[in-house]
Amino acid sequence: MEAASGGLDAASGAPDSAGGPDAAGGLDEDYRTAGFGRRIGWGERPAVLLVDPVHAYADPDSALFLRTAADALAAMERLARTAREAGLPVVFTAVRYDREPAFHVPHFHRKVPGLDAFRAKSPHARFTAVCPPLPGDDTVYKHYPSAFFRTGLHDRLTSYGVDTVVIGGFSTSGCVRATALDALQHGFRPLVVREAVADRDPAPHEANLFDLDAKYADAVGLDEACAALGGVSPGESPR
Hints:
about 240 residues; about 35% helix
């Protein structure tokens, strides 16, 4: 994908050399000067939230297939395993429609007919063998991008004493972004794990990670997240 002059660079999501803040001294510095990009940080009680790690994004025969899904799934599995070993909550989400998607989400389906992949009986709607929910994990089914919208997830996390949500999943610019934003709006600290999310193309992936990290969440590395999660006992701070 070729970026237009002065627009987003296809690889990094930053303005290209033809113009914009990057040409004048760096997009990062421009955002910092404007007051963006401070750290939210870890709270006292994290949970891992894995957004839609299903076959629709992992199977090459699916129209929604993501080329980097396999690496992200491996990272998600590591996050889930680390949290389980530390006795921390692990929550999976999946889009699931018991009836035709056009019945449940008429306008959303009009915009994205690919939602047909998430009919309840579709093999693409199932969790993958690489990173499935295990006994003791929570599973939340949803109709829209955010894991919080009309799912009861806020109350469930609150009942566990969770204040920090460590997020992986598909896709960065869609359900991951919506979930991270809603996590913040519901009073949680959202941390998006870079290696554990994926998108259809590097441009929206990197641009959305940059924007989330600037405004709504902390984008963190997999090693950092696992080190923090692995050092937490229930009720203790990861710091």
